[in-house]
Design a protein that fits this description.
129 residues; globular; disordered N terminus; binds copper (II) ion; single chain; Immunoglobulin-like; three-stranded mixed sheet
Length: 129
């Protein structure tokens, strides 16, 4: 299970990097990564807004403290790896993912389980240049 979660996290990282073109940029100049926590409760993310800096990896520790299954997906980034069963967190499950953005702006994320986003289970990463 741990290996699968690790592979999913790695796949996610690569997908984000490839999708938004980070890999083409080469290394980051002294940007240190940081870790933040998001709790997935029933029908909300807490917090539901994060900040990040372009090119600096953002490590996010997801914990599902709800009674239902939840996930975290960036609909605008086409991340098929997050649509699989492995990407969904069961109640009590924790997973660490790494995000890296090469475009500033507001990157929206949602829970893709049916009805959850519509009920308000959404959030955003505000990426600064
Ligand atoms: Cu959900």
């Amino acid at each position: 299970m741990k290996l699968i979660a690790g592979l999913v996290a790695l796949g996610l990282t690569l997908l984000v990097a490839v999708t938004i073109g980070v890999l083409g940029r080469g290394g980051s100049e002294g940007g240190s990564s940081k870790t933040v926590e998001i709790v997935l409760a029933d029908l909300r993310f807490s917090p539901n807004q994060l900040s990040a800096k372009v090119g600096v990896p953002l490590t996010v520790r997801l914990t599902n403290r709800g009674l239902e299954r939840h996930d975290l997906n960036f609909p605008s980034l086409h991340m098929p790896g997050l649509e699989g069963v492995e990407s969904i967190l069961a109640p009590g499950e924790t997973r660490t993912i790494t995000l890296q953005f090469d475009q500033p702006g507001e990157h929206t994320f949602i829970c893709t389980l049916p009805g959850h986003a519509a009920a308000g289970m959404t959030g955003a990463v505000i990426v600064r240049p």
